[in-house]
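WARN no homologs supplied; continuing
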Amino acid sequence: MACGSSASILGRKGLSFKKLLLLAWLLIKDKETLKKLWHRPGLTLAISISSCLGSIGWFSAMSLTAVPYVKTLGQVEVFFMMLISSLWLKQRVKVKDMGGLVLIALAAVLVLWG
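OK structure emitted
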């Protein structure tokens, strides 16, 4: 795709609009978070880069294999995030969360089995 193609220009304008919309939302609703982001530029940049790389990974995975498998992997990711938050961050797991994790595991098995 050429750098000046209409899809490229539309994509850049869409991203710029999203940035402005998020900035406006933070200015109106959560100025404290915006201040924290401004005072920690290195951390903000590291998180932004890792998020970008994660998105590239998801898009690449969806182009290489069937989307249900990729989405199932995304659901299993929630399980591991809950595990890390309970073991490492010492957060309590609620009964509703445990029920959700059971449903995620069941859905993953059904996708892989079916």
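The radius of gyration is 19 Å.
OK
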